[in-house]
Structures are given as C-alpha cells and as structure tokens.
Amino acid sequence: MREDVYARSGPASFSLDTSRERIPTGSTHRYQIGKLSVSEIRSMLRNTTRMLIARARQNGELAGQSWRPST
C-alpha cells in the first residue's frame, strides 16, 4: 500500500491499492459505526489511545508521565 494517503481522498485512493471489485465508502463506515452503542465507541477509543501511547513509548517517541486533566 502507498503511504501518506489522505483520508479525504476516499475511495479513489483506495481503489488504486486494492484488488476488490467493490470498494467500501464512507456511508458503509457510518452505517457500521451507527450500530455501536456510545459505551462501545468509548471503549474502542480508550483501547486505541492506550495502544498508541504504549507504541509511542516503546518507540521512544513519548517520555514522562501521562497527561492528566486538572480538577
């Protein structure tokens, strides 16, 4: 796959890199997201954030303590 492809280029960019006959569109993504509950989406976002932070730390791209909002 090509790197540095912008998300807004949409199906046109994806079609260059795939062998699929049918290409998923934004409406497909919105439909799938719409089937999830708010708590499921929050959970996925938390897990993704944790994974990204762990990967950044592992690669030496992030040092120090986690940011915590002030109360």
Can you describe what's shown?
- It is a single chain.
- This protein is mainly α and 71 residues long.
- The chain has one domain (9-58).
- The protein contains 3 helices and no strands.
- The protein is flat.
- The model has no long low-confidence stretch (mean pLDDT 76).
Quickly describe the structure.
The protein is built from three helices and no strands. With 71 residues, it is an all-alpha fold.
- Pick out the low-confidence regions: none
Which range does the strand content fall in?
under 5%
Helix content: 40-55%
Number of strands: 0
H and E string: HHH
Q: Please report the number of helical segments.
A: 3
Query: What would you report as the Rg, rounded to the nearest angstrom?
Result: 17 Å
User: Helices and strands: which structural class?
Assistant: mainly alpha
Provide the number of structural domains: 1
Mean pLDDT: 76
Roughly how many Å apart are the termini?
Answer: 44 Å
Overall geometric form? flat
The biggest sheet amounts to:
none
Main features:
mainly alpha; 54% helix; 71 residues
SSE arrangement:
Elements: H1 10-17, H2 26-34, H3 38-58
